[in-house]
Design goal:
By secondary structure, the protein is an alpha+beta fold. Among the domains are: 112 residues; 70 residues, no CATH class. The protein is 42% helix and 12% strand. The strands form three sheets. It has a six-stranded mixed beta sheet, sandwiched between helices. It has a three-stranded antiparallel beta sheet with strand order 7-9-10, with helices on one face. α4 packs across α9, α8 packs across α10 and α9 packs across α10. Its EC number is 2.7.1.82. Belongs to the choline/ethanolamine kinase family. It is an enzyme of class 2 (transferase). Pathway: Phospholipid metabolism; phosphatidylethanolamine biosynthesis; phosphatidylethanolamine from ethanolamine: step 1/3.
């Protein structure tokens, strides 16, 4: 990925193209968008090609290249553009205006590729060279050290900013079914947005709690079973907010600008510059996909990343043990304060221990977060993935963590879960 984040457009000045990407007519609609952005490509001796990276309800991602003769693959990639089109129904899950704001904000700190243009249902941005990591790569020392450094930079230098809150664009249901007063008769007006934003009083909105509240309101409620589950999850969110929203932590008001989706597919290993002999333990990574980024406790972002060591298959035995988590957090803390440049000396060892303990406390929350997300995806997604089963696995992580914390698992004589056992192992 390099530090290819040069000649960035100024925030708020990103061009808008009044066209849409059409999945059923992908080639034609994508070509219209690209030639509007790069009209000179139509009159070159090159061949415009589309390379599909991902396709699904969350987004369609196409790499667009102008394959001109006499250019090396690297030179072609230097001019390549990524076309990202949003999946149908994702307004229930993702605030697309916020995603654009996130991208523009990160551009200011050279932490995101240049955002070249927006269109009705997506965006166009500069292609970033490098190799995508796999879950196994996250366990490699040179990679997790690079991830820790980059995540620390995000958390230390990017400010948490409020969003201008518009009325909900998509109707969400169920608020009257979950044991609390309906915030408003309408399911898509400013009062409902206000109810979501105030779920954690005193905290900058949006944040990780407002995201979970919006998702719970958006859960399906067609059956009594669905209504009961929504009520149960609302009860748990209320408990989580009470227990976690005012815990001390890094950042202003204990919030940092968090990625919140730091799985292996969103970590890019930057290519080494030609002619350099950079040691393998000095890898540099960058992060992509900012649709879930929001102010959050640093411990949540780190715990969520650790959960992704097991990949989509949730192989809990692959999660980092205590010694690995401590090493990661040590690298993170040293980098965090080197980026932040505090006025007075910092006791790094104390900060390392505090954050290590805090991540331990937060370890069950990512399962709750993605479990709710997967329940919604199971009803709206068109891609071939068993979201319903994934939801049960992720929510199971949360309930296993609760059972460990309140002693109910031991009291009932149940065997400890693989994930909880792995988390407690020293190495």
């Amino acid at each position: 990925m390099g530090s290819p984040l040069e000649s960035q457009p100024k925030p708020g000045k990103v061009r808008f193209i009044p066209l849409s990407y059409n999945q059923s007519d992908s080639q034609t609609s994508a070509l219209r968008l690209i030639l509007t952005l790069r009209p000179d490509w139509e009159n070159t001796d090159g061949k415009i090609e589309f390379i599909r990276f991902t396709d699904g309800i969350t987004n369609t991602l196409l790499k667009v290249i102008n394959k001109r003769p006499n250019l090396s693959p690297e030179e072609i990639d230097d001019e390549a553009v990524l076309l990202r089109a949003y999946g149908q129904g994702t307004d229930l899950i993702i605030d697309r205006e916020r995603e654009t704001q996130n991208h523009e904000l990160l551009m200011q700190y050279n932490l995101a590729p240049a955002l070249l243009a927006r269109f009705h249902n997506g965006m166009l941005y500069r292609f970033i060279q490098g190799s995508v990591t796999s879950p196994a790569d996250l366990q490699r020392k040179e990679i997790w050290r690079a991830v820790a450094k980059r995540l620390a930079e995000w958390h230390a230098v990017v400010p948490c900013l409020p969003s201008a809150r518009a009325p909900l664009s998509a109707e969400i249901v169920g608020s009257e079914e979950i044991g609390i007063s309906a915030p408003t008769p309408s399911k898509k007006d400013p009062a409902l947005q206000s109810a979501i934003d105030s779920v954690a009083p005193g905290k900058l909105a949006p944040n990780v709690w407002t995201v979970m509240q919006k998702w719970i309101y958006a859960l399906p409620t067609k059956t009594e079973t669905e209504k009961s589950r929504q009520a149960s999850l609302q009860k748990e969110l209320t408990k989580i907010v009470e227990e976690f929203s005012n815990r001390p932590g890094l950042g202003k008001d204990s919030l940092v600008f968090a990625h919140c989706d730091l799985l292996s597919g969103n970590v890019i290993i930057q290519p080494k510059k030609t002619g350099t002999t950079t040691p393998s333990d000095k890898e540099i990574v960058s992060f992509i996909d900012y649709e879930y980024a929001t102010p959050s406790p640093a411990a949540f972002d780190i715990a969520n990343h650790f959960a992704e060591w097991g990949g989509f298959d949730c192989e809990h035995h692959l999660l980092p043990a205590k010694s690995q988590r401590l090493d990661f957090i040590r690298e993170y803390i040293r980098s965090y304060f080197s980026f932040q440049k505090p006025d007075s000396p910092v006791d790094e060892e104390t900060e390392i221990r505090k954050l290590f303990d805090e991540v331990d406390v937060w370890r069950g929350i990512p399962g709750f977060y993605w479990g709710i997300w997967a329940l919604i995806q199971a009803t709206i997604s068109q891609i071939d993935f068993d979201y319903a089963s994934y939801a049960e696995v992720r929510l199971g992580e949360y309930w296993a963590w609760r059972a460990e914390g309140d002693g109910s698992r031991v009291a009932e004589g149940r065997e400890i879960s693989v994930r909880e056992r792995r988390w407690a192992e020293e190495s």
